[in-house]
Amino acid sequence: xxxxxxxxxxxxxxxxxxELSSNPxxxxxxxxxxxxxxxxxxxxxxxxxxIRSATCPDKEFLQDCPNLKYIIRAGEGTDNxxxxxxxxxxxxxxNTPGANNNSAAEHALALMMTVLRKTALANTSMHSGKWExxxxxxxxxxxxxxxxxGFGRIGQLLAKRLIGFxxxxxxxxxxxxxxxxxYDNIQKVHSVEDIFKSADIISIHTPLNNHTRNxxxxxxxxxxxxxxxxxxxxxxxxxxxxxxxxxxxxxxxKGAALDVFSSEPLAETSPLLGIENLVLTPHLGGSxxxxxxxxxxxxxxxxxxxxxxxxxxNEVKA
Length: 318
Ligand code: MLT
Prior knowledge:
Layout: E1 4-8, H1 14-21, E2 26-29, H2 36-42, E3 48-51, H3 59-63, E4 70-73, H4 83-89, E5 92-95, H5 101-117, H6 119-127, E6 145-149, H7 153-162, E7 168-172, E8 186-188, H8 192-198, E9 201-204, H9 218-222, E10 229-232, H10 241-249, E11 255-258, E12 278-280, H11 289-307
Parallel strand pairs: 1-2, 1-3, 3-4, 4-5, 6-7, 6-9, 7-8, 9-10, 10-11, 11-12
Helix pairs in contact: 1-11, 5-7
This protein binds D-malate (MLT).
């Protein structure tokens, strides 16, 4: 019986994939963190590949995978995969919808609190032996107007978790309507512009596509209230990074937090580095033990279905 060779790229729940290797139908290359060099070496053998955001299969990459039939994006966004090239080469693509959404929503909330209460700055200051209480007076989240751009699964989970802070929640989404949202006191607005000019805290939860690429530019940032803050834990390239730097330096907004970047890992020369009222985290939205367990469980199930039972679950098309 011939085995399906599965290459697991990027950091993922190792235990689940070791369990998969005990199935005689699979040979799994389950390094928790395969380097891009290792991946380049062994991808020629792969029938299936499981990736997160660090591995970006473009056409050139895919042409070097003659046996590849199936890619699972262990997470939500598939913008790092050239899906048109996959379609051309007969490679199917799936994601694991919903599995890490709670962690992503919680991380957006954590970033809001970090900016509002200046906890990252206070932590750095304390570890350098200082006691600068007067420098770190913050703001409350309670009773603020919160604008959520993109009201799919993650945006709605965030709203649900925010409700305890008695906020006014505005959202913009081209598809979701207020009547399909199971919470009171949440209002849909007509445009992204409406969110940016009215909200005290803005959180982005859209996919990256032709409508959202470079959506948050200098003009939009300049329309924010000067004491407002912005959080982007969705995708890099939605916020124009140079424009955010300019707007922060000019005081167009009070602070911001980014978990995602136009290029990852962030370059050492990025203009985002060293800006005091900007909190940065290295794409941690889905990085919890709980999320990675759920994502891994779904990926393993989908691999079984595809290679053993011939079923394609959660397909994402070009
Ligand atoms: C996702 O799209 O699910 C996120 O990028 C989370 C991740 O895989 O790290």
